[in-house]
Design goal:
With 155 residues, the chain is mainly alpha-helical. It has five helices and no strands. Helix 1 crosses helix 2 (62-74). The N and C termini lie far apart (58 Å).
Length: 155
């Protein structure tokens, strides 16, 4: 990479001797033309001998990807699309657990409290969150407040 001066984009180039890959930057007039341009390039690469399984499309947003997927499907291009990973229950559950373990506010506690293994009443969770905030105690350390706190049920 070489800098193009102040406030300039960097010129990116592959530094791998075996890289036979080119990066193309093209702008579509609208979402329809953009999606069709991507589909055309995928099919062009396929006709040049690049299997579909060796091609990938990355998008900045799930919304953009969802729109592109429908165009690729309409064009008969095989694809492997998992959907919005962050809407999958197991991913949201995992992120909630991680937030309790790593975020100061414990924002994932309300979701985790509803796991079948816990079934903690929502008012108890809200009481604990309020206590943690009042005492400036961060999670996961704030979970220790539950044992001695008034207003938290036995559950």
């Amino acid at each position: 990479m070489t800098a193009g001066g102040p406030n300039k984009f960097l010129d990116w180039r592959a530094h791998r001797s075996d890289a036979a890959v080119e990066i193309h930057y093209e702008v579509g007039q609208n979402e329809f033309s953009e999606a069709n341009g991507i589909a055309d390039e995928i099919q062009r690469q396929h006709h040049l001998g690049v299997p579909y399984r060796d091609q990938a499309v990355l998008c900045r947003t799930h919304t953009g990807l969802a729109k592109l997927v429908s165009t690729l499907e309409e064009r008969g291009i095989p694809l492997f699309y998992l959907g919005d990973l962050f809407e999958r229950t197991e991913i949201r559950d995992l992120l909630s657990l991680l937030s309790i373990a790593s975020e100061r506010k414990g924002s994932g506690l309300l979701r985790v409290s509803q796991f079948s293994d816990y079934q903690i009443p929502a008012p108890d969770v809200l009481t604990l969150l309020e206590l943690a905030q009042e005492q400036s105690l961060y999670f996961p350390k704030a979970l220790e407040l539950a044992d001695a706190a008034e207003g938290i049920s036995a559950e």
